[in-house]
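Question thread 4412

I'm putting together a teaching handout and wanted feedback from people who do this every day. The idea is simple: show students a protein as raw sequence, then show them the structure tokens that encode its fold, then repeat with a second protein so they can compare. Below is the first pair exactly as I plan to print it.
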Amino acid sequence: MATVSLRFSVRALEADAGLSGTFLAPHSGPRLVGKLRSSRVPADFQRHEVGPRGEVVHLAALGLGSGSGPGAGGSSASWVSADEQMRNARSHPLRSAKRSEAVASKEPWTATVYARGQRPDAARRVLASALQLPRTAVLGRGALHTPGISVQLVTFPRGLPTVLQQAQHDGPLVSGLLTGQDPLVAVGASTLLAPEVDAVGSTVQDTTSRRQRRGTGPENWQCQGHSYSVVLRNLSPWQCEAGIVEDGVARFATDGFINAFELGDFGLAEVRRYEVGAALWAGKWDLAAKLLLVMNQADTNGEGCHSSPASAAAAAFRSGDLARGVELLPEDGTAEGLRALALQLLLRRPALEALQRAVPKPVWARHLSAVSRLAWSRAAAIRLRQMPHRPMPGDLIWDESAGEARALKADEVDMRRLADVVLPLPRPGEVVPECPGRLQMEATLDKLTSGQADPEVAAFPINVGSLMPRFRHLVCVPSDVSWDIVEAADGPVVDCDLTKLIGDEIGTVVRTPEADDTKATNRRARAGRRSAASGRSGGGSGVSASLRGPALRARFTLPRGSSAEAALRELLHAEASEFCEDLGRRDELF
């Protein structure tokens, strides 16, 4: 194996993903320029799950005792108070103990999880660790990979063991807050709010009734999309006065954006996810195992020390020293899968067997799906660059009545929009459906796999037929779009759920520049008009100075699977590396 390390480049990844420089709107005249600085002010980027009827999930109370489904109080048996346990034990000691143990271990327990920080996607791992449960014991739909705030429902399918319930009465989770790590995690009950918005930060909250909430149990809940609240800072005053902001948002709300994937879906380490996925796709098991072990090849700093916690181990793996690599892996529990894989190889297991034993199913899925995403992205780029930005005969559209995609007929073109066009997402062992982008997809797959035939699908420990949806819309049009312009200070201009719950105490919980002053701004702004929301005051340091000035507050809803990063990319007519602060490499660990 070569010993020369790679160097990660965001710009190179954007170019390789295929859509770099491709937008729906033509590049004519001045464009909206702003910065997403959620790495410093997490409240600038907030994501809430949205239910089938448009209900938005919000954290309504803190503490495990308030664990619940969407405003429903969760499973009736998911939490038993100390007083109730004592009463039951006195009346029917044996029956009570058996019933409590069975219920606590089998009844699903659902709660709302709020995550805030650089890695909101790690919230389920943090929660599982705090409850002394395996990571797989906490289930949720998707995760936010951008610095910011995420609010979602999670479920423990087998519930919380009785011993944990009893212990938590004296433990840290009684408060519902897990601090001291990234991300900060809050857990508790939820409420569903109907999204009637007259301005960002000024939601007309139509809370569902108690009776309605009882009928919306966790077993009936399905996340259908996400509601986003985004703040773009550092607008220039002339953009606001010249109507550039208004025109840009109006075009975004009407025409939508290219339904691209997030850059993080392709991997932000030196070895990309689709490179590992291509080796798995082609059945090159030895190569796939080696690539997984050496993904993190961050350069050493000026003193010869590795800049990434996993890069020293990757260097040892790259040189063929598996035993040394195992010793150098991080000990914080984030690299147990890599450790297991290396140990399997040390035991001289065949590479396929080692992969099947050591690599979790979600890791197989994210690497294989990265291949599908890359093929889709490159085909989408060709479609948009070489053909008009309108439906064309032969394009695939989704037929709701038939429940499948079909070719668009010439006499239907005038009745369709570009948002109706779909492109297939290829899967291992399946033929790419006939469509304008088929040849490009097949060329991408052949290049990645070197033309090698797919292995038997039985070799994969996951159902590749359900790896991803069969088709993805070329363009996504957001709903519930509202916006205004505010004069921002150093801190947040949109309050999050945790701030609304604990108020001034957030300054003792969150140690960020935004916590200098936690007084919430209650000024309301009419949608589309300039308002004077002050944000939070702070010091005059150079770090915080770039947070001040005109800022765009926007709120919109996207279907599940669509990316807010892609939405902002179109709105700003710029690549993510141009507007996402601190977008860079990230270790690939499992």
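The second pair follows. I'd like the answer to focus on this one:
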Amino acid sequence: MVEGLSNGELSVLNEAIRGLQSVAENGNVHAESTLAFLYASGSGVQQSDAKAFLYHHFAAHGGNLQSKMALAYSYSRQQMYEEAVVLYSELAAVAMASFISSKDTPLTEPVRLNEGFEESRESLKKFRGEDDDDFQFLEYQAHKGYPEAMYRLGVFYYFGLRGVRRDHGKALTWLLKAVDKSDSRSMDLLGEIYARGYGVERNYSQAYEWFLQAASQNHYSAFNGIGYLYVKGRGVAEGKNLTKAKEYFRKAAEAGDSHGHYNMGILYLKGLGVKKDLKVACKHFMTAANKGHPKAFYQLAKMQQRGIPGLKRDPATAAALFKIVAERGPWGSLMKWALECYLKGQTAKALLLYSRAAELGYEVGQSNAAWILEKYHNEGICLGQSGVCTDAERHRRAHILWSYSSEQGNEHAALLIGDAYYYGRGAEKNLDRAAEAYRKAQLQQNSQAMFNLGYMYEHGLGLPKDFHLAKRYYDQALDTEPAAMLPVTFALIGLYLRQKYAGSFIVSFWITSDMIHGRWADEILKAKLDFEESFNLFRVNYDNMTLMTLFACLLTVLYLRQRQRRMHYGQYVDSSPS
């Protein structure tokens, strides 16, 4: 099936679908989950949300975790939070278990492929592993003896970040070299490595020594490691000592360390060495969550799910918090695999994987899949019901993906949803909904959405004609994006002329001018260019300033000639015989 979807071979895909259907009839949950994905997208089969839901339901009932993710996301979108929170809580628990027991660290790197309409080349090049120039320069600095570079190399190799293949041996080598340079962060990480037994044989005594060395340099994160060992009673001479554990966790928390706050929260939640106090526990968890601590999100979600004194039960918030944790589960490897395929030039396979991640609710997966559909529309990588996607099928898929992404706060997606409704691409043309989408993007400080709203108010497109509001949105676009100076200047000139000289020759000339209307106002919307691209057409330089000056002079001459002709005509009428 992967081969059929990746290579655009419908016959291979059809054969795979027949095999999946046969196996699914016997209750194979993986086949059921895969068929659900195909029906949801309409790849090789007639698109059917009902069949997709049914297959996901069967697969989830049989224990397929990806189908549970898809169902939980679907319930959440439909505001069926009671159903969503049950599934998300189960998935988050699986993710939490992977944090503790898995040798693979639960770190995810959601990489967005695009900036606006163009590929995010600067961001993507950082994920090319050892071939990246920045990585090679970092390696050069490490060989020169810089402890910061040594530590960062150790982190990259240990966790397998930025496209670097995980290599615990190289990681330990660089971390130990950094320790020789008295780098406290490396000491702390080595303590964590030996305490958890990730890539080395677990050794609590050695972990304790590394934590102590880091703590002696006031590296407050290391206090958490020491506190953890006192909670477990491992590697410390006194054995288990909750009072000492609390003191170390408190020191870390007072220094603003998120792990310190989380650990203090656990003590108060369970009454370990302190009097049980859910309010104090909740306060520590909130502080840790505000710093991005995933386990704190999980504990807060559990509190929101059942409700505690001072914190009302809220299944919607609980589902959202559980989702954050659940997305760090093992199925998150789809995102990493998709990025690797894209960087290797396997665009079709990347689209397949991002589309699957999108179905599970990953916003970056939704955005990336939609962008690939738009960017590579001529390469036949999108398979529809009967072959390569028609424009209608491709627009529909992209529109759905951008809609999902927009719902999760992606301002660029909200802008493109507005474009879709404005032009009727992938959705029925609806100027009211276009304006609504542009407003959503505008609230997220998207300058092009501000410009588009100004344009719609100026021309009365889907919004009441209102020159004052048009000017306000044009001004907002310029305040938000200084590079918008020239397009906004032209827009404001046009707006001024419409107000002061409505119905005059100069306004007619302005409206019908191909240079102003055809290449500037309409094309900024119709060509779907982002501001950076559009403004590059008119970026202020000497040539553009000259062109602008000449054009202004031409308008002035034309206006004066028209005025002179009218005066002459008026004099002729006055002097003619009655």
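Top answer:
Good format. For the second protein you could add a caption like this: Residues 542-575 form the longest helix (34 residues). The CA atoms of residues 1 and 15 lie 8 Å apart.
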